[in-house]
Amino acid sequence: MSNADAVRDSIYRSCMYKDDMKWQEWLDLCDEDFQYSITAYSPEIRNDMIYLSGDREEMRGMMKMLPKHNTDHSPLKRHCSVYAVDLEDDGSMATAVSSVVVYQTQLDGINSHVDAGESKVFLVGRYFDKFRISDGVAKFVEREVKLDTRKLDKGSHYPI
């Protein structure tokens, strides 16, 4: 597998693991120096808003707390398309840009504007990723999720 393919594999696996709420498997794709953020540009304030920011250990702590949150358990599913993978000359580092759309299928229709079983677009944005590549394995060093969507519904405390 080429280094570019290893990058794509890590991106797509990260989506599957998060879809299935396999948080440890997702974190295993991340380097020890991993940094994660979710941002969106606000035209009203003409600046980026930061919804979430943390390192690998902060993400681990958050994952441990997720089962204790009072949340909508309607599943989120990510549809991702990798647009570009750029490798450094020596192949040890890479950057990637991907499009992501997250869908949510409503488990029940109580207190919701969506009927039970109905799927809706939850959010739209892009992944801006940096990777460290060693022995054919691409590990996330950084992920910034830049959202087009600025109004997030219940369940938005999960990593996107």
Brief digest:
With 160 residues, the chain is α+β, with helices and mostly antiparallel strands. The chain has three helices and six strands. The chain has one domain (3-147): Nuclear Transport Factor 2, Chain: A, CATH 3.10.450.50.
Explain the overall architecture:
- By secondary structure, this protein is α+β, with helices and mostly antiparallel strands.
- It has one domain (3-147): Nuclear Transport Factor 2, Chain: A, CATH 3.10.450.50.
- It is 21% helix and 46% strand.
- The protein has helices spanning 3-19, 23-28, 56-65, and strands spanning 30-42, 47-55, 76-87, 93-105, 119-134, 137-147.
- It has a six-stranded mixed β-sheet with strand order 2-1-6-5-4-3.
- A hairpin with a 2-residue loop joins strand 5 (119-134) and strand 6 (137-147).
- The chain is globular, with a radius of gyration of 16 Å.
- The model has no long low-confidence stretch (mean pLDDT 90).
